[in-house]
Amino acid sequence: MPVDAEREITRLHNALGLSQGITKSTHYQWRQAALELAGPGVDPVDVTLKFWEIARRGLNQVMLSS
């Protein structure tokens, strides 16, 4: 059974785009929730920097264990 490579690549590309869109949307929803919980005096940049600090620690663990 022949495989249509171009069709497969297009299908995978579209699936990846959808996944990236969901991830981006989730990040901004998370950020909005964190800002609402933190209160009006919190700088949005500080919340985002803290997120990346925590994410970097998790990424470092994954990279070191592989």
From TrEMBL:
Recorded superkingdom: Bacteria
Protein name according to UniProt: Uncharacterized protein
